[in-house]
Amino acid sequence: MPNIATLLKEEISKIARKEVQDQVRELKQTVREQRDAINRLEKQVGSAKAAAKSAAAKPAAKVRKPAGIGDRRKQRRIAPNTIKKHRKRLKLSQAELGELLNVSTNTVLRWEAGTSKPRRKHLPELDQLRTISMRELKKRLSE
Question: For the whole model, what pTM was predicted?
């Protein structure tokens, strides 16, 4: 005669396995659905990036900003050799240029050597060196 305890153990194991398999099946289905959702979202992100990239590649229509407050005029590049060239053209020493721009002589030296760059507030003044006349320069230095 079979042992009742053994039979009960076997039956309980079968039922437990079935329940675990059912729960695992449900979890697998949920994971599959979530992976599908992730793939759809990744495709949407990829197409959005491609659309943004193609939109960036197309030249945008130029919008003219009205002149006035906040108007950023086209700023020219101020290279170290440009600063030195215009300083020499105006027959200024580095100290005089520094005095004119309210910076130290060493600052002008570093600008011309290319070891530092002028701050934004000095760029318009340096840009004016291109067009300033000797008379106007002497007038500014005497003030």
Answer: 0.46
- The total of other beta-carbon atoms located within 10 Å of residue 103's CB is 18
Q: What is the pLDDT of residues 123-143, one digit of tens each?
A: 888 888 888 888 888 888 777
DSSP state of 131: T
Helix axes of 105-113 and 80-89: crossing angle, nearest 10 degrees: 120
Whether 113 contacts 80, CB under 8 Å:
yes
Distance of alpha carbon 114 from alpha carbon 33, whole angstroms = 60
> DSSP characters for 58-82?
SPPPP-PPPSSTT--PPPPP--HHH
Residue of 132, 115, 130, 131 lying closest to 78 (CA atoms): 130
